[in-house]
Every structure is written in structure tokens, then in C-alpha cells.
Amino acid sequence: MSTAVLEPPPTEGKPLTTGRQPAGIIVALWAFVTIPFLALLAAVPVMWGWGLSWVDVVIFVVFYSIGAAGIGTGFHRYFTHGSFKAKRWLRITLAVAGSLAIEGAVTQWVADHRRHHQFSDMEGDPHSPWRYGESFWGLTKGLWYSHTGWLFHDDPTPPARYAPDMTADPAMRAISAAFPALCALSLALPFGAGWLIGGTWRAALAALLWAGLARVTVLQHVTWSVNSLCHVFGSRPFATRRYDRATNLWPLALVSFGESWHNMHHSDPACARHGAEPGQIDISAAVIRLFERLGWATGVHWPVPARLAARRNPGRDQPQPALQPGGRRTERAVIPGRRLPRLPVSSDRLA
User: Fold this and answer.
1) Sign of the CA dihedral 176, 85, 6, 231?
2) Most buried residue among 113, 141, 233, 326 by CB atoms closer than 10 A?
């Protein structure tokens, strides 16, 4: 069972962090961001010379799907927001699957994302693209920061503060501690699959390149694009909390497994389906539906028509007054200068 736990905002809206990033963590971050990306660049001339076989494509899709479902269904909707309850074995499986995406240990990922919701697009948000203001260069810098730069910033989120339910679970602590080994496994499995199917070192190395390193890069940047692009570009059919600029960005819907219906998600964070309107692709919601029908998931928070109608923006995509918890509306403020506004202690909790 997973329950999203968030304490009230810190005194005077100040987010609690752990101080500076340890040097070892910074080195590891550089490795896990740059090595897969360099491998993706190397894959282009390799494809030109060797071609891309159906085996490479199939293995890529399989491992991409495992990681994307682990992030979207597991790390995000289950662990972070408690959109459904899961059997113990499924809980562990989702934690491992999400870890194979190589986006961080499960307890840290959950803590970062809960903090993002608690301070969305305000001072304290770990990756708001609006932190440097609304000018062209400020927003350009902010997009870079929210996409990747925030990972290296000296503002780490303490899991014990933002994800106490995760740190209290021995299984989650063990899986988080095993994250380096799971990263190695995430690359070893495609290599082994390529060897078993192709029977040659060349096939195994091609699978490592495409379904291992290139797959990790693509999935990482799709996830990070939700942090960056989905707070700047796209539509806003649903009202969110004050200052929160989350948007729906349909071009990312398929590759993100439905995570880019971000405006709907920020309007109703615990909802298991983010693409709640007709025609919106949401693969993670389909996975949850399958779990429910198999009896592996219960208590699923599916969209409620009346709740959706109450949260809909009157002007659809226009920046209308934001919906506060409890249904109270306030005017949306413009984020001033180079500093995000502080969180009003009395009003901005997770919806």
C-alpha cells in the first residue's frame, strides 16, 4: 500500500533541503546524464554503417516500455501520489522497474516530485522553468535548468522530509540502496537479450547501444521534458493552484506513457488517469486498468466527471484564476523578476 504523505509547508514558505550535494553524487550524476547521451550520439553513425535490425527495435521497445511504465505507473502515480493500492509483490516490482529507467533511486525520485507539487512554480520548486523570470533569456535559462541543470544544483531534497512513508519501508530503502546495481542490470539485460537472440558479440553490443544506453537517454529526456516543456508550452484546460503553470503537451503523450497531460495531473494529482478527456493517449492509465482487472491493484482513483467539470478553466486554454484546495479561487499572479514567489503558508498545500 502506498500513501502520499506531505507535511504542511515549512515556516515562511521555506523549503527544507539537505544543503550541498556530496562530490560523489555530482560525479555519479554527470556519468548517468552524459554517458547515455554520448552513446545516443554514437548510435547515429553506427546506424548509418550497420543499419538498425528488427531485433534492436524490439528489444528497445520492450525495455523502454518497462522503464516508462515503472516511472509513470510506479514512481509517479503509485509511490508519489497514491493513485491506487498495490499488492506487496507489485509494489516491489514497480520500484525495480522504475529504477531500471536510471532516473534516480525510488525514494529520492518520489521526494523530489512531491516537493515539486508542494512548491510548484514557486520558490522551493526543485525544477521550475520560471525561476529566472519571464524574459526570453530568463525563460531559456529556466528551461535548461528545469530540464537537466536542477540535478546538479546545491538544493537536494531530503527523502526523510518529503517521503517519510518511503524511507520507513525496508523494501524501498533496500531497492534505493541497490540503485547502482540496478543501473548496471538495466544495461546488462539488453546486452544479454541481444546475445541470446542474435548469437554474436555484434548483436549483443548493438542491443547494449540501442536498448541500453540510447533507450536510457531517450526515456530520461522524455521525463525531463515533462519538468520543463510541460510548464511552458501547451494547453491549460484545467485550473491549478496559484502560480502553478503546468500544461498539457500532446506531442509527448505517447512516448511519455501519458505523463505529458500534466495540466490535468496538477489539477488533480491523485487521479490515476492524466489523459482524462476523449482521445487522450494514456498508456500508464491502461496499465493501471490492467492491474485492477487482474486484482493486483485496488482503490484506484479514476476521473470523476463532476470533479473534472468543477476544475475546468472557463476559458479553456487561457490563464484563468487558479483553483485553490477547497475550491476557493484566487487571481493568478505574474512571477516577478528573477525570483520565484514564496509559498503562502496558509493556502498552498497539495490538492
Assistant:
1) positive
2) 113
Give me the amino acid identity at 337. G
pLDDT in tens, 203-250: 898 899 889 988 999 999 999 999 999 999 999 999 998 889 999 999
CA atoms within 13 A on the CB side of 184: 3
Grid cell, residue 265, equals: 495531473
Domain boundary assignment for the chain: 11-330
Q: How far apart are CA 91 and CA 297, in angstroms?
A: 10
Write the DSSP string, 305-345.
Answer: HHHHHHHB-TTTTS-PPEEPTTS-EEPPPPPPTTSPPPPPT
Q: What is the pTM of this model?
A: 0.81
Digit-coded pLDDT (tens) for 271-325: 999 999 999 999 999 999 999 999 999 999 999 999 999 999 875 544 433 333 3
- If phi over 0 gives left and psi between -120 and 50 gives alpha, with beta otherwise, what is residue 319? beta
- Residue 122 phi, psi dihedral angles, 5° rounding: -130, 175
Taking Cα atoms as reference points, which of 192, 139, 150 lies closest to residue 29? Answer: 150
From CA 95, how far away is CA 91, in angstroms rounded?
A: 6
The size of the chain, in residues, is 351
Hey, is 261 helix, strand or coil?
A: strand
